[in-house]
Design a protein that fits this description.
Layout lengths: L1 E6 L4 H10 L5 H5 L5 E4 L4 E6 L4 H6 L5 E5 H7 L4 E5 L5 E7 L10 E6 L2 H11 L2 E6 L6 H4 L5 E6 L3 H5 L3 E9 L1 E5 L1 H20 L6
The chain binds 1-O-pyrophosphono-5-O-phosphono-alpha-D-ribofuranose.
The site of 1-O-pyrophosphono-5-O-phosphono-alpha-D-ribofuranose has 13 residues, from strand 9 and helix 7.
Length: 209
Amino acid sequence: MMRLALPKGRNLGVTLSALRAAGIGLAGLEENGRRLRGSFEVDALEVLLLKDWDVPLYVEYGVADFGVVGSDVLAERDGDVLVPARLSEGGCRLSLIGPEGSLPAAGSQVRLATKYPGLARRLVASRSWGAEIVKLSGSVELGPLLQLSDVALDIVQTGTTLRENQLVELEVVEDVYPCLIVNRASYQRYRSRINELVRRLEEQELVLL
Ligand code: PRP
């Protein structure tokens, strides 16, 4: 049975609706919110519900054959997986955020809070900032809000979190999309099923070209 790794975080809803539109209904998953593993005989699929950050690892190691995860997580983890499609729904941005007017000038000393230390290191190198990177696990907005850091590198989707904390999006660093990822060996084995899934997602205009 093919095994699918799904992220429990922000991309779960959008992934389930994309799969549903492509003919893979996983209704049982939504109803049993606490279950971590479910079999869906109709589609000969077993589904694992994982923390977003663990999805690439399960797929790279072949414990799951394919999965969905944000391009932000994928870029930070640098795993060896195939990415046959990016979803057109559920997009957001990886941005520098902070108080109004706090975008550091080139050459300045910056303390930056983030869940993405790897991406942050690349960013500060490209800006010639002398930077100290503070790795946080969540609630990253509190960094600049409480002066733990000058700015933060974090996800912005609707902008609600920023507005509620009197912060602004200083600069968009990159666009982020949920990505379909596939284990290399599993792609050889299940090529026609994966290609059929991508084809159906394309048909529903759920894939970015
Ligand atoms: C992200 C980010 C913000 C929020 C932004 O967190 O860290 O807190 O979403 O979304 P908004 O612009 O729609 O308000 P995420 O949902 O990835 O959860 P996490 O902080 O628990 O990782």
